[in-house]
Every structure is written in structure tokens, then in C-alpha cells.
Design brief:
This protein is α+β, with helices and mostly antiparallel strands and 83 residues long. It has a domain at 8-50: Pemi-like Protein 1, Chain: D, CATH 2.10.260.10. It is built from 2 helices and 4 strands. It has helices spanning 21-26, 56-60; strands spanning 8-11, 14-17, 35-40, 43-48. The strands form 2 sheets. The protein has a two-stranded antiparallel ribbon. It has a two-stranded antiparallel ribbon with strand order 3-4. Strand 3 and strand 4 (43-48) form a beta hairpin. It is elongated and about 70 Å long.
Amino acid sequence: MKDMNLKIKKWGNGSGILLPKVILDMFSLKTDDCFSMSIENDQIVLSPVKKRHMTLAERFAEYEGETKQEEFWTDAPIGEERI
């Protein structure tokens, strides 16, 4: 792919660079994807942050709140259901 020149544009109170659709498609990027940014050899390097699905254990690993497990039933029986 040939080099592209991109322009920094005003965006609200900040500034942004619009990425061409061909680049978005090439890397399977979409609106609201996150990037990490680093500076290497006087160059700005953007890398997409890969979203990884967390297991339930990972989601609760740092949870310190109270847990209360109890069964509940919200409907009245309408047939021959037995609890």
C-alpha cells in the first residue's frame, strides 16, 4: 500500500485523525475500538487493543463486595409444576 497523508482535524475540544475505510477494513476496525499509543524512534505507533473475553472467575477475581445466593421464584404456578 502506498503512503497516505492524513490531516489532523478539529473534533469538539480536541483533535483527531480520520482513518480511511480501506485501513479500517484491512485491520477489521470499527467505531469505538481502542488503541494503545507509543512513541518509537520519533514515530507515533498506534496498536489496536485486542478485546479478550474474560471468564466468570476473572470477572469476579477482584470483587470484594457481599455475595448473596438464594433461589427465588417470581411466577405463581399455572399448571402442575412442583417446586
